[in-house]
Amino acid sequence: MQRVFTEDGIKQEFEHTLSSRVERYLKVKPHGIVPLTEFAPVSAECTLLFRDGHFYGSIALSQAVAEAIAKFLCQKNGWKPKKNFEENVAKLQTRHFISNGMKDKLLRIWEKRDDYHHLNPTIETDREKLEALAYEKVLLLKEIESEVFKFSIVDGKLVPENTKYWVLQQNGTVPVFLKLE
Q: Which pTM was predicted?
């Protein structure tokens, strides 16, 4: 009986929230193809959390993925990242591995990171403001991934713009993570 009630409750919730979920997903449809990294599936979850109305989770996870991308960029460009996110981002920009715009996007995702990471009493509780904040961070993450993992399709083949951020196989293929619905 408990199973039947639980299934019914989930079905009702799904039907009630379906339209808003679709709208939120379409607002932040992810960058569909990224290299197969340890943070690629986690990045996909940021979008799904936002889509499903889990705004605290999408904020905190977007911040974690931004941190992982900054570390990834440091490593791919030849140095061990520091523990301080802002220092890593500043060094990436100073050494011209990211643009000023990319630096700004990373730092905007990072804003209030400690508040959400530690669940400080200052985190937003108003549902509409929380959704707007989650939307901003997930959209920034999409823009960052679109720039870092930019590619084109030539003769049906994926051609990465910056190959050092992709693992190119000897047979000419590239392992990818697909974020396509």
A: 0.91
